Amino acid sequence: MKSIVADNFSKIIKEKCLKQCTVAQKAGYSKQQLTDMLKGRKRIKETDILRLASALDVDVSVLLKTEADSKQSDEASDKQREKERPDVRAFVKLLKIEDGYAVCDVRFKIVKPDEEQEVTDR
Questions:
Q1: Do residues 4 and 41 touch, judged by C-beta distance below 8 A?
Q2: Residue 59: left if φ>0, alpha if ψ -120 to 50, beta else—which one?
Q3: 5, 43 in Cβ contact below 8 A?
């Protein structure tokens, strides 16, 4: 049976475009030993998790993260980004119509969570 660690390990290898044999060697395993761990034929122990995290250059918590943890983390990140996203408002004032074209004064107001800035274009 595959473990969460094995699933996360495989995802990280793909994301970082690494080869399994290179990571195995860096962690001090043969390619077959690592394959056995990832396929569930060999139990992954705490010491193995530490060695794998070090070889991948990630924190141990990344290998232990469940799908539910990832969703909660993603939701928290989305909420934080939403708070940081500036609000942009445009104000258009028609000044005159000249040769069939509208001449307008356009003002943009960019409201950030902690500051205000006004930009004018004509």
A1: no
A2: beta
A3: no
Let me know: does 31 contact 24? Beta carbons within 8 Å.
yes
Chain segment 19-57, per-residue pLDDT in tens: 999 999 999 999 999 999 989 899 999 999 999 999 999
Render 12-55 in DSSP notation, one character per residue.
Answer: HHHHTT--HHHHHHHHT--HHHHHHHHHTSSPPPHHHHHHHHHH
Q: Which long-range contacts (CB under 8 A, 24 or more apart) does 27-35 make?
A: 27/51, 27/52, 27/54, 27/55
Has this prediction a pTM greater than 0.85? no
